[in-house]
Each structure stands twice: as structure tokens, then as C-alpha cells.
Amino acid sequence: MSQTAVIAKLREELSAIEGRGFRRRPALPFALSSVDEALASGGLRLDALHEVAGASASMGDDAAATLFLAGVAARAWGPVLWVVRRRDLFAPGLMQAGLAPERVIYAEAADDDELLAIMEEGLRHRGLGAVIGEVKRAGLSATRRLQLAAEGGRTIALLLKRHGKGDPLGAPSAAVTRWRVACAPSAPLPVAGVGRARWRLELTRQKGGPGGEWIVEACDDTGRCALPAQLVDRPAAAGGAASRHAA
């Protein structure tokens, strides 16, 4: 299917969901005080481009970055456009991170240029809650266009930078925030088994604020991360297990 045909089909699908009157917010907080306090807007700006990459090229880190994006999109309003280069998304996995299949419109692009064009079209439509794309390369001019489209449509743009040659977040970008996501050891359990997955989130850059690094528990089925709970036995006098603070 040609790029023109893909964009025409996308316009038809977006027209079908137009005019539902969703309420928009300026930012999407994580509801984790240490993370939100580090973000200049108190959360992820919803009229901006944000870039995410796995900390390494491993399948584990790539999956963690993908699920991090799914959790963000799950907590945004309304339909989500997800533009891919390859058919490797696992819908049940996205649902476990809170992103229900009926909310997702999938588009497949032949190359990075077509993918970025489809993202820009979706962002300018104003009928979507989030637009996600997966690329290996996106130049400064392309990310500027995505940022301007996100501002104009007031729709969050999420760009997953796949590993290729060099650092996926090394090139200049107009993104408001840039994140690395890595797998971290899960919590020990009092019985044999694996606890809730954990991630190391690194805010490598943001406009108007500092970076930061946190260990969090992976998204639950509402798209929310959590601060790790203390899962070791301690005497009641010592205060017991620390409570979990969900995003």
C-alpha cells in the first residue's frame, strides 16, 4: 500500500472517532512524587514529543521500553495510533500494561520516513489521545515537525527509538523528554517464584529541568508504575513492610 493510500485510510478511521468530546489535560503525571517533582510540567506534557529507548539492544530492555510506552498511552484519554515497521507487538502484553486492544489503531509503514509522516498526520488530527511510532532514525527536522504537530493537536507523541548503529538517543532531537528503560531485578518473594517486574528509568534529558534515575515496578493493568515495596520480614516494632505508592 502506498504512503498516500495509508494516510487516506488513516484519515477515514480518524474521522470515525472524531467529535467524542474527550477532556484534555496539560500533563500526564506518574503520581510518583520523586518522578513528577523532577519533571518541569509535573508529568509528561500531553502536547509534546517524548522519546524512549531500551537501555540496550536486548529483547528484555526493548520489551520494557515498549511496555513503558503502552502504560503511558493507557493513562491518556481515548484512541491510540501505534505506527510500526514490523509486526512484533503482542496485544495481550500491551493489555497487561493497561492498553486495551479496542483502543489501538495500528498502522504499518514501509520505512522510517513513511512512519514519521503517518505519525505527523495523526498528531494533527486532534482526535487521538496518543500517537506512538517505532524508528531507528529520526533527524532533528523530523522531530521538530512531530513536536510542532503535537503542540498544534495537543496530542502526546511517543517515539520508540530502536537500537541500530550507535546510541539511539545520541542524535539531536526536539523531544521535550528522553528516557532509557532497562530491566532490573524483580522483588524477592517469600516463596519460590518471580516477583513483579522492575525497571530502571533514566530521564536522560528534558527541556527546562534536570535528569534523574529511578527503580520502579513495571506497569500494572491500569498502566501505572509503582515504587518498589519492601518485601522482607521485619518486626512490627520496626514498622513492617513499607507501603507501595502506585502511579
Question: What does the model show?
Answer:
With 247 residues, this protein is of the alpha/beta class. Helix content is 29%, strand content 22%. An 8-stranded mixed beta sheet has the order 5-4-6-7-3-8-9-10. A two-stranded antiparallel ribbon has the order 1-2. Residues 19-23 and 231-247 have low confidence and may be disordered.
Question: Which short descriptors sum up this protein?
Answer:
247 residues, 6 helices, P-loop_NTPase, ImuA, Protein ImuA, disordered C terminus, alpha/beta, globular
Nutshell version of this structure?
With 247 residues, the chain is of the alpha/beta class.
What is the CATH homologous superfamily assignment? P-loop containing nucleotide triphosphate hydrolases
- Helix/strand class: alpha/beta
Major β-sheet strand ordering: 5-4-6-7-3-8-9-10
Count every beta strand, where a strand is a DSSP E run of 2 or more residues.
10
Bin the strand percentage.
Answer: 15-25%
Ends apart, CA distance between termini: 40 Å
Number of domains: 1
Order of helices and strands: HEHEEHEHEHEHEEEE
CATH topology: Rossmann fold
The description of the largest β-sheet is: 8 strands, mixed
Helix-strand blueprint:
Elements: H1 3-16, E1 27-28, H2 33-38, E2 44-45, E3 49-54, H3 59-75, E4 80-84, H4 91-96, E5 104-108, H5 112-125, E6 130-135, H6 140-153, E7 156-161, E8 177-184, E9 198-206, E10 212-217
Parallel strand pairs: 3-7, 3-8, 4-5, 4-6, 6-7
Antiparallel strand pairs: 1-2, 8-9, 9-10
